[in-house]
Amino acid sequence: MKILGIESAAMAASVAVVTEELVIGEFTVNLKKTHSQTLLPMIDRLFATLEMEPSELDAIAVSGGPGSFTGLRIGAATAKGLGLALKKPLIHVPTMDAMAYGLYGAAGLVCPLMDARRHQVYTGLYRFAPEFETVKEQWAADIHELIGELNGRGEPVCFLGDGISANRAILEEEVKVPYRFAPPHVSRERAAAVAALGAVYLAQGRTETAEAFRPDYLKKSQAEREREVAERQGEMEKLAAGIVVVEH
Amino acid sequence: MTEQKIEGQGEKTEEVLILAVESSCDETAAAVVQNGRQVLSNVISSQIDLHTLFGGVVPEIASRKHIERINQVISQALQDSGKCLEEMTAIAVTYGPGLVGALLVGVAEAKAIAFAAKKPLIGVHHIEGHVSANFIEHPDLEPPFLCLIVSGGHTHLVIVKDYGEFEILGRTRDDAAGEAFDKVARAVGLGYPGGPKIDRAAREGNPHAMEFPRARVGEHPYDFSFSGLKSAVLNYINHARMTGEEICVPDLAASFQNAVVEVLVSRTMEAAAAFGCRRVAIAGGVASNTALREGMKEACGKAGLAFYYPSPIFCTDNAAMIGAAAYYEYRKGNRAGWDLNAVPGLRLGER
After folding, report:
1. Facing residues of A3 across strands?
2. Does B137 reside within a domain?
3. Would B27 be classed as within a structural domain?
4. Partner-chain residue, chosen from B61, B68, B113, that has the shortest CB–CB distance to A214
5. What is the CA radius of gyration of chain A?
6. Which one of A29, A56, A74, A220 makes the best mutation probe of the B interface by having the most chain B beta carbons within 10 Å?
7. pLDDT 10s digit of each residue in chain A, 248 long?
8. CA-based angle A186:A191:A196, to the nearest 5?
9. Do B169 and B60 belong to one domain?
10. Which of A34, A73, A241 is opposite residue B55, by nearest beta carbon?
11. Do A81 and B53 touch (CB under 8 A)?
12. Which range marks the domain in which residue B206 is found?
């Protein structure tokens, strides 16, 4: 069984081919270059290096979000195009789940943090007890709110992700439970983790068609939020006239 | 596959089938085009109802919708064409200009399909696509010809010297023609999209009820400017509202439209005369406007010029026009790499 993993939710551009036992190949870069230019050339080189045909794949696992809206869509469209042409199923792997899975076997809680700016993070809570378990499904949180929850749980925690550097001072100041930061090789998103967790989902039959796949942004767009306010306040005409709708 | 001989060369050329994808704005579209001129399928999934709620295209919503619809649209285009992906000669995609997030969906999708199906990839300029829409229904039309490109984002007057080769004679200095339609429609309460709404309202109105200014751009005889006209219309509306005067929307729409059409037609005819063009075409979303079509038809008729325009279905954003443009790129040997990126500000004639 061979699964292609695609990860483009944040800064990392990462692709991997994984079997039940082995990461056959993985290319990962953490560069501020658009995924549009890096992702498919990496997939092309990965298959060429492995002397493997894309048609040998059983499924395509995608880091499904949350993350950068554009990054998620580049990964999703790439996976959907591959799925359409190869007639293979897709596996939607929540981005926080894949990040946590990368720290396999860690003691205590695993808490991925993805920077969502202004001290907001995408996060989730996981543990290995001994198998991978979701304690709290991924959500968008204020960093202070998250720390309050962790302090309340009173368990040791291991953080990873780019939300650490964005909130380091606050974490060091406010976290009262024993905590660690993951080392560099497991500190960010990686496609091998997406594909490996994807293999677990595949065994459980958790696949979807390339047609149906869509990212899980976790956040509504600004326009959708504005529309909901307009609907609530009976100001749809104002919205259609292009006038900014303000919540009362 | 059928094969045909090119006379005198003794060479066999294959039938070229192109699967084209377009997602530059708010239409998710795919088409299969044979030899650049024969449209085997043309599927368009429009998001217009959604964007109408916001009075215009919301980029993030457009991008999200593209992701949800793109595979269905492509599969439908293949199915309608009676061909399968394996039979395609190449995959083509619009890579600019347009909304970056929207373009990226089509670009990433098309690249992945081309890679997995082992087909060459062709990046197509959206505006070249609009121009090429004229080839679909006019098998006799070949470069050189004069073309007026008018849409929500573009107003260009060009000589199409050869396939994919343009000499730009003029462009808008401010608003695109279609943009002016949208803004005026919104101000007068007709809503989005402005082009078709104004067009309809204008049919009941007097095109000379009000005379709005027609701008010239100094030493650039073929350039356009619509911001002055737009301001004049908006001022008229504001003045009328302040003085409690009732606005006759059909008259206003007809008068505004007449000013736009007159400028577009007169510049085009002046350029045709100056450059000795015997054939004139129009392209882009505004090329669907009935007054523009009538005005151009009449002026070309008087001047003895051949006039070409696409059916409305090929004027709106569609992928058949992208497949038509891609065919000539394919013939020239132009291929895109797997690093093809979306270029939102891609200029005409730029690669």
Report:
1. A18, A59
2. no
3. yes
4. B68
5. 19
6. A74
7. 999 999 999 999 999 999 999 999 999 999 988 999 999 999 999 999 999 999 999 999 999 999 999 999 999 999 999 999 999 999 999 999 999 999 999 999 999 999 999 999 999 999 999 999 999 999 999 999 999 999 999 999 999 999 999 999 999 999 999 999 999 999 999 999 999 999 999 999 999 999 999 999 999 999 999 999 999 999 998 888 878 888 88
8. 90
9. no
10. A241
11. no
12. 143-309
Q: Which residue of A has its CA nearest to B74?
A: A84
B190 within a domain of the structure (yes/no): yes
Contact between chains at A239 and B56 (C-beta distance less than 8 A): no
Instruction: Give the lowest-confidence range in A160-164, B10-14, B195-199.
Output: B10-14
The DSSP result for A55-95, as a single string, is: GG-SEEEEE--SS-HHHHHHHHHHHHHHHHHHT--EEEE-H
For residue A211, give the 3-state DSSP assignment.
coil
Q: In CATH, what is the architecture of A104-186? A: 2-Layer Sandwich (3.30)
Is the pLDDT assigned to residue B11 strictly greater than 60? no
- Quick one: pLDDT band at residue B124, thresholds 50, 70, 90? very high
Does the beta-carbon distance from B60 to A43 stay under 8 Å?
A: no
A109 close to A157: Cβ distance less than 8 angstroms? yes
Q: Do B109 and A80 touch (CB under 8 A)?
A: yes
The beta strand positions in chain B, using DSSP E, are: 3-5, 12-14, 17-22, 27-34, 38-46, 90-96, 121-125, 145-150, 155-162, 165-171, 279-283, 306-308
Average pLDDT over residues B298-322: 97
The CATH number fitting domain A3-96+190-203, selected from 3.40.1190.10, 3.40.50.720, 3.30.420.40, 3.40.50.2000: 3.30.420.40
Residues of B in contact with A56 (CB under 8 A): none
Query: Among partner residues A70, A210, A242, which is closest to B101 by beta-carbon distance?
Result: A70
Using alpha carbons only, give the angle A180, A184, A188 rounded to the nearest 5 degrees.
Answer: 90
Domain-wise residue ranges, chain A: 3-96+190-203, 104-186, 221-248
B349 band by pLDDT with thresholds 50, 70 and 90: confident
B341 touches chain A (CB under 8 A): yes
Question: Does this chain's domain A3-96+190-203 share its CATH topology with A104-186?
Answer: yes
Are the Cβ atoms of B104 and A77 closer than 8 angstroms?
Answer: yes
Total structural domains in chain B? Answer: 2
Cβ contacts of A44 on chain B, cutoff 8 Å: 115, 338
Cβ of B1 under 8 Å from any chain A Cβ? no
